[in-house]
Design brief:
The chain is an alpha/beta fold and about 190 residues long. The protein has six helices and six strands. Helix 3 crosses helix 4. It starts with a strand and ends with a helix.
């Protein structure tokens, strides 16, 4: 599978490279674009401030330009938190997308969005301050109405970005379960 893996608001940190290496070891080709031009952040607030300064349109433009050379191959879009939201936007707009793997995040869905049974897998903490139960219920229903084939996995007690060993949110058991399930999902595509 060809995978575009997009970093979180923390930037392109070692955990993103480690995740890409794990996916490569499972036989996938993985690209990890740096949408923040080498900048990484220690806190969500710092990363969000930079994202806001950059602007949503510029961030999306950078992501589209990063994916464009590979999209003809049929990409699986994947991402962490803010990167998941960006990956979702790209996948829903790419009729050649093979799948969508969301780690720790989702995004709004335009009302007129239609996909043809796009396989989608979401992994998220329970509870998650950025992905509330009400939001996730509405998101799930909207994704189904759009035509996506959605699986949701919740991890009780895990922090928001629980797959990153460099963050306080890290939960080794939840991270291992996520990667085991995600790799199975990718193998099924």
């Amino acid at each position: 599978m060809n995978i575009m893996l997009i970093h979180s608001t923390y930037g392109l940190r070692p955990a993103v490279h480690a995740a890409a290496d794990r996916l490569r070891a499972a036989g996938h080709e993985v690209w990890t674009p740096d949408l923040f031009d080498g900048r990484t952040f220690e806190t969500v607030e710092e990363g969000m401030a930079f994202k806001d300064e950059l602007g949503k349109d510029e961030l999306l433009k950078r992501a589209i330009l990063a994916a464009a050379p590979y999209s003809e191959r049929g990409l699986v879009y994947a991402g962490f938190s803010l990167g998941a939201a960006t990956a979702q936007t790209l996948a829903l707009g790419d009729d050649k997308a093979r799948g969508l793997l969301l780690l720790h995040g989702t995004s709004d869905i335009a009302e007129n969005t239609k996909v043809d049974e796009l396989p989608v897998q979401l992994h998220v903490a329970e509870p998650d301050p950025f992905e509330t139960d009400d939001w996730l219920s509405a998101w799930y229903l909207q994704m189904q109405r759009a035509g996506a084939d959605v699986e949701v996995y919740r991890y009780a007690g895990a922090g928001h970005i629980y797959t990153d060993p460099g963050l306080d949110d890290y939960d080794a058991d939840a991270a291992e379960a996520t990667w085991r399930t995600a790799i199975g999902f990718l193998e099924s595509l």
